[in-house]
Design brief:
Largest sheet: 6 strands, antiparallel
Number of strands: 11
Structural class: alpha+beta
Shape: rod-shaped
Number of helices: 2
Radius of gyration: 28 Å
Helix content: 10-25%
Strand order of the largest sheet: 2-1-11-10-7-8
Strand content: 25-35%
Distance between the termini: 95 Å
């Protein structure tokens, strides 16, 4: 049995059973099977269709795109645990179907550079943002400050204040 759990901000998660459905439409329009009333969702956003024993997800030319595991898609076969994003709305696909054999063997793939998926892989020393990465965090990124420059600026400011003070004191003594 396949299910789709959708996480719309400020709402309880919505869980949809796909059992017995050959296709399920997703969008903002009232004629869709799954209606997501959110600004990032197109009227006719995506289509889940049963192909053989598994569901495929197809983007229907949506404005903000459909993503699986962070990658923009036009059509892709879903596997148990697939992380989907419709526009900016997150969803989880769960299925009792096993992953196809070619995908299961990809877990032990090593491209020769030491980057392998799965528990036997090594940790990369550097990482690169995937193409199309969108940071949806509501928390702004904190930029690191140059502490040496900050200290130098503080010392310079104090020196100017001291010089102005000396000029003022000198002028007061001369006037007296």
């Amino acid at each position: 049995m396949a299910t789709l759990t959708i996480f719309v901000p400020d709402q309880d998660p919505m869980k949809f059973s796909l059992e017995g459905q050959t296709q399920v439409t997703v969008g903002r329009a009232p004629d869709k099977d799954i209606i997501l009333d959110h600004a990032s969702i197109s009227s006719s956003h995506a289509l889940l269709k049963l192909v053989g024993d598994s569901y495929h997800l197809e983007d229907l030319g949506s404005t903000n795109g459909t993503f699986v595991e962070g990658e923009g898609i036009s059509e892709v076969q879903l596997v148990n645990g697939s992380k989907i994003t419709f526009g900016t709305i997150q969803a989880d696909y769960e299925s009792s179907e096993e992953a196809p054999a070619e995908e299961a063997s990809a877990e032990s793939f090593d491209d020769g550079g030491g980057y392998a998926a799965g528990p036997e892989g090594s940790v990369a020393e550097t990482s690169v943002r995937p193409a199309g990465y969108n940071d949806l965090s509501p928390i702004e990124k904190v930029e690191k400050k140059d502490t040496v420059a900050t200290v130098a600026l503080l010392i310079g400011t104090l020196a100017i204040i001291a010089a102005v003070g000396l000029v003022v004191m000198s002028a007061m003594m001369t006037a007296a």
